[in-house]
Amino acid sequence: MPGIGNDVVALRAIDVDRTKKYRFYSKIIVDSEKLIYDEQLSSAISFEKFVWLAWSVKESAFKCLQRYRHDLVFSPSNTLISEVHLPEYAASTTTEGLGFDEARVYRTLLTYQGHQLYSRTMLSSDFIFTVVNDTNDFSNTWWKVKKIGSSDPEDQSLEVRHLLLYKLHELYPAAQFFIEKSLFGFPVLFRDGREADFPVSFSHHDHFVGCAFAC
Amino acid sequence: MTREEILDELKSVFAPYTTNKEMLANINDQTDLITDLKINSANLVDIIIDAEAKYNIEIDYDSADKMINVGSCVDVIAEKLKQK
What we know:
The complex is a heterodimer of chains A (about 220) and B (about 80).
Chain A: E1 4-10, H1 16-19, H2 22-25, H3 31-41, H4 47-66, E2 79-85, E3 96-98, E4 106-112, E5 115-123, E6 127-133, E7 141-147, H5 153-171, E8 177-181, E9 187-191, E10 194-195, E11 200-205, E12 208-214
Antiparallel strand pairs in A: 1-6, 2-4, 3-7, 4-5, 5-6, 7-12, 8-9, 9-10, 11-12
Chain B: H1 3-14, H2 21-25, H3 44-55, H4 61-66, H5 70-83
Helix pairs in contact in B: 1-5
């Protein structure tokens, strides 16, 4: 079964001044990643957005691997981004898709616990949305990010499940789906009473929710 | 400081980041920051920074990685206070 993880960061909810302080950002990015920013990215993206982009990539990587490595601990400092490729064009306003417009997303290569992973990140004026795969081919990855009316965790959880199930019913109208949370906290999808053969991933932050699966 | 005193004080560190006030009032070592207190993972670094400021300690990478439930937060803070 392939791995997948996603994360969303609501930009209005981040503390820009705090993010720029060494004491804060050094908990998320390491020296080699700061060097990548300084040498390759500083003219294209603000530092605070880079820090949160890195966070969303690392959090997504943890979710991608967690379902196979139940002992895994989320460790930003041990999740190392070694390559960041800038988009050629401004981010699309699309908030749902099968695969990504490769010219409009940030692409990274990263390693975590000996695993090589790949990411695609959309950076809009309102949010950062990332999907991480264990393959560099995202053409079979369905994803969606949405602004909702509440930031309450219960509402976020209900809304993101609804988004995913709605899409699955659209794609597979004859199948019955439901989602359970594993003992380790990640969502598990069931299709016609049996665990489905593709993983799903949820995320939420402030008024945004996101989800992804490989189909 | 005793573990009980640290645990009690930690409530004020967690408070800005959780809406689950009932759970916050009754936290124990097993309380998970994300699944029980419903703290968004994006705020975990805020909690580490706030704890550093409150106790005038520095929490290194490896220690920060352990701070996933209340008990491990108390352990890390108690250890750093002992090292001062």
